[in-house]
């Protein structure tokens, strides 16, 4: 299972990378805006800065919503670095753009997936990743994890190469449940990954080991 970090904050990306378990980064226009990144040149430079930190898999989202616009923007994003994965929304022109990029050998991440049918369409078009937003589904009383399960099943049935990238992950239990049901990738805030570290018995056990060591060596 791969771990991506869902942020455009360079310090956080560096910190996550330093932990040694990071496989990629996902961004979206809201996350870029949160970091105050604006203006075409600055946006491209910021994606390059992210690529310079991590080994691979930097999802950069197009803003255009028409086919020609998405192709132009996606090509420009893909030129920044081989690590870029062009993120494209699940809309009709987006499906066409995914097919185009798939034929060109440019990786894509189809975003804003909220149903199994959308995931099936994206896979048929040749998306490298689909991003079902599980937290946003949970927020409106729909079961986000069931959607992941459904997509994993469908892709397994037909041997699609498209990877299931669970997005909008809110907490560490989401991550563990995604691992149990076979999501290929999870993207989440760094605190969701560090949340996996915690167990009170680990803290208690370590405290005891150190106390015993100190007693024996004093
Ligand atoms: C990542 O690709 C998505 O854009 C992101 O996970 C959405 O998360 P949110 O629902 O917390 O905004």
From TrEMBL:
Its EC number is 2.2.1.2. It is an enzyme of class 2 (transferase). The active site is at residue 87. Keywords: Cytoplasm, Pentose shunt, Schiff base, Transferase. Transaldolase is important for the balance of metabolites in the pentose-phosphate pathway. Belongs to the transaldolase family. Type 3B subfamily. This is Probable transaldolase. It comes from Shiella aurantiaca. The lineage of its organism: Bacteria, Pseudomonadati, Bacteroidota, Cytophagia, Cytophagales.
């Amino acid at each position: 299972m791969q771990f991506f970090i869902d942020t455009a904050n360079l310090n956080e990306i560096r910190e996550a990378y330093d932990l040694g378990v990071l496989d990629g980064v996902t961004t979206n226009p809201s996350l870029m805006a949160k970091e105050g990144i604006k203006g075409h040149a600055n946006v491209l430079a910021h994606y390059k800065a992210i690529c310079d930190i991590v080994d691979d898999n930097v999802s950069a989202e197009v803003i255009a919503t028409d086919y020609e616009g998405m192709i132009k923007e996606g090509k420009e994003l893909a030129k920044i670095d081989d690590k870029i994965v062009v993120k494209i929304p699940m809309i009709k022109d987006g499906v066409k753009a995914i097919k185009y990029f798939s034929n060109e050998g440019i990786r894509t991440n189809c975003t804003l997936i909220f149903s199994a049918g959308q995931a099936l369409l994206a896979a048929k078009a040749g998306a490298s990743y689909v991003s079902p937003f599980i937290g946003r589904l949970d927020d409106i009383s729909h079961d986000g994890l069931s959607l992941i399960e459904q997509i994993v099943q469908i892709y397994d049935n037909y041997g699609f190469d498209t990877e299931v990238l669970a997005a909008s992950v809110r907490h560490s239990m989401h991550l563990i449940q995604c691992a149990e049901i076979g999501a290929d990738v999870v993207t989440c805030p760094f605190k969701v990954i560090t949340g996996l570290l915690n167990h009170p018995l680990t803290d208690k056990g370590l405290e005891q080991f150190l106390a015993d060591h100190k007693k024996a060596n004093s």
